[in-house]
Design a protein that fits this description.
Layout lengths: L1 H27 L4 H23 L11 E3 L4 H11 L1 H18 L3 H4 L5 H23 L11 H20 L2 H5 L1 H14 L7 H5 L18 H28 L6 H20 L5 E3 L2 H9 L4 H15 L2 H7 L4 H23 L7 H19 L12 H4 L2 H17 L3 H8 L1
Antiparallel strand pairs: 1-2
Helix pairs in contact: 1-2, 1-3, 1-13, 1-14, 2-12, 2-14, 2-15, 3-4, 4-11, 4-12, 6-16, 6-17, 6-19, 7-9, 7-16, 9-16, 11-12, 17-19
Amino acid sequence: MKNLLLSIQHLLAMYAGAIIVPIIVGKALGFSGEEIAYLVSIDIFMCGVATFLQVYKGIGIGLPVVLGCTFTAVTPMIMIGSKHGIDVLYGSLFASGIIIVLIAPFFSYLVKIFPPIVTGSVVTIIGITLMPVAMNNLAGGQGSKSYGDPLNIILGLMTLIIILVIHRLSSGFIRSIAILLGLVVGTIVASFFGLVDVSAVYNSNLFELPKPFRFGGFKFEIGSILLFVIVGIVSLIESTGVYHALSEITKTPIERKDISKGYRAEGIAIVLGSIFNAFPYTAYSQNVGLVSLSGVKSKNVMYGMVALLILAGSMPKFGALATIIPTPILGGAMIAMFGMVMAYGVKMLGAIDFTKQDNLLIIAVSVGVGLGITTVPGAFAKFGEDYAWLTQNGIVLGTLTAILLNLFFNGINNQQIEETMK
């Protein structure tokens, strides 16, 4: 019974992050309520599968690592899905997952060209480009009849305040689910204003197994693949810190080959996720805190969580519950969550020596170029559609700029590499 309760606790800690990404992406790409409910269900299901791959030592790193969909993929998924279509979106995810699997044994060497000054700049760019999505949702959803209605903004800000208050006044597990609690309270309040539609819950099936290629097959486009490879690499670097933290907490030494297996498990999870129209996955740091707080390091707890995720993901009515959250309520929570992505990027940059003017210039130019193209994508449009994957994609162009400038000014700096691998 104790293990079951601990498994439920782990599920709740990652649940808000797991459900919000499919809701945001689904709404942005114009999916129906039923389709968004499927996205939520398959994401929960695949989080269970991905976590199993990572926890089972025969495949993954063998530590109590929880894998969930990464927020850094939200902007790229919306961008590619809107511009190229769902088939290119999932084809690109599939190809990037294969590439991650192939580079897994060598990534500890490739990581040399992705020191904190590069990854911090990339994550900062991604975090900032996510904020317009949050603000549009706070206002009621771009294109909606009630866009900008003061009621929407008040409810969204109320949700944000609830999250902040819970985070300020609580600790431990309650603090770790502050966003989930904020969404629940915000939705209850919004229901009194007639903003909650539960029809998706009534119309969805009680039990349904995942269907491969639910939204179509694969098409491939080089720029989209490259973009998701970059997102995957950033996720691997983030996961590396989680691996080392859990190794220390559980007193389980890990070697380079173990880390390589962890990378490979994440790549396999991306491949499987693309087949079932799910999402890219990364290690969730919020669950690391639970392992530390509870003091329970048993894999049985993680396997129990896997079973709960797979069961919940097979019940569309359960997934449909997440779709009743009103758009302004989501927007309020997104400000906190997406702001944390940006803040994490700034934190990664905190390892940089800012007394060196060269480093300031690398960050200034790469972030400036990335944000500049994101906000004015047509600036280089005359280079033609053949090069649009580079000239009209702020994340790709910002990343390449950061890599090249870092190599130009710093070369391959061993100290930077050690900071990255911590």
